[in-house]
# Entry
Amino acid sequence: METIVNSLTKLKGVHHACIYQDGKQLASTFPDDEAATAMAEEIIEQIFAVLLAIERSYNEIYFSIGEKILAAFLMHDNHIVLLVTDKKINFPLITMGVKSASTKIRLKIEEKKSNLLVAMPAANNVAQPATNHMVVPFLPETNPEFEPVLEQLSLKLINFLGPAAPFVLDDSLKQWKQKYVQTRENLPHLIEFIREELDSDTDKNEFSNVANNIIERTTNT
# Structure
């Protein structure tokens, strides 16, 4: 997580970044004013909670503070990314950077869960039968047949997500391979995983049309 917040502060115009979940700070470059940071985090969590309660799908909040902007982004698993930025800043670029961070956060969570599963100690140091061992689900290699499809999807996805595109495609591909057999008939499910990472309905529909054309053209040649 420290690596992720440090990479966010390298974006032009970003001064500080932190990641927290359920009131617990996971990583931060904010100044050592714990009271002020905790208050800001609590207020932002309450705002997102209210928005969810009234079925509003806002996942970005911006506050003007003097010559700076306090920006909050709601991620998966209730993770929140908090940034302090200049007022004059390239917000589309910042959003792309946060999307990339979101994917990295999710991968960190999955990695941590996997490590816990394979490293669970036996109760009372007594060896357990092999049938009781927790095993990380096997993730098959990508079928070479679909490499042309994935290459074209990656190129088109850049138009929607910029530098975050490779991370989103990789994450979506892992989810797809975990839940579905790698067949042409199941490729639309991969498109659905990718669609979930796009913000607007316009982008989702446009990407679906482009992706379906790629699948139709590439897998029928």
